[in-house]
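Re: export button greyed out
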Amino acid sequence: MTTAVSPLLTRLAAERATGALLRDRGTLFLEDGRVVHAESPSTPGLDVLLTTGGGLAPERWKEAVDEAGGRRQVARFLVDSGGLADGELEICHLAAIFDAAFFALSPGSGPSRFRRGATHWIGSVRSVPAEAVERETRRRRELLDAVWPYPLLDISPVVPRQAAPGQTVTTRQRILLGQADGVRTPADLAWVLGRPAFHTLLDVRRLAAAGLVETPHTRPVPLSAAPLPDWITEAQSPDVALLRRLRDALEASL
Amino acid sequence: MANVETALKEATTTIDGALGAALVDYGSGMALGTIGGSKDLDLSVAAAGNTDVVRAKVRTMEMLGLQDEIEDILITLGSQYHLIRLMKARGSSGFFLYLALDRGRANLAMARHQLRKIEAELEI
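Workaround output, generated via the alternate export path:
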């Protein structure tokens, strides 16, 4: 029997709780025990997926947040104002939930806290059972290791290698390699390409397995302290996760 | 305009012989929605596995230097048809529709036609 990815999430789902599950690497929003939204500083948000990765004009996104953010109906507004098709919003939103949840529920994501009653301004799009989120998170971890078991790739700059004679590179891979400048990490590339971060991790592991990207064997030296994520600075009062990040950032800059 | 659930429901109700359908995210191998399926046909597993099928075909096309796009892929089993229809997404990420059909009851030409219609309705 597999162990739960997050025992707290399992319990909250069972008691059909509503609120925000906060961890160091991300936040899961629950409604009646089902996951309705997720965010993580490790991944591009829905805005980036829809604008950079999709066909939505950045002004339309901004307009929707300005107009409907206070009412917490940004998603509804985007569709009703004709900026976005129902199907596209739903699919991108689902991709964003599972992507952020993968990082929020990662083993190094620290202790969990639950803020009961908290909701997200995106509003209701679609909800997924917490159990499905846990199952998919587990599948993704296993998939990464099945492809190429070198987790250091996930946090190191992506360094392309020359293709072997006769080796083919697909269009999708070429686009990613074209943005890999030897400094950007997979997460940076996800932002540039407007793709979910997990997808980029997977692509990079596949590229490394094919010898098209260097496999690092030592930890990268952090260039600078990571900036504080929006989900912590904008919406919430200081808490343990924030204080811990602050301490880490201060120590890193000593 | 349709959402994922209604599109998949339409696929399994209007297409003769449909056993199950899934909308799959090609980048992660995850099914964003499934309908139908059974003990013998786990659509989540099928979604992940068929992502490898699509990737292999895309790579083969690159090796051959074919400047064309895949519209759909057909896999014929003894008792079933499996139909994979790649969706033309606006963004860089890709999705495909996966449809399992009972070979004895399905009309393949009609099924392909209807799947094309369902893709258009999803408007990604």
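Residues 86-104 of chain A form the longest helix (19 residues). The button fix ships in the next patch.
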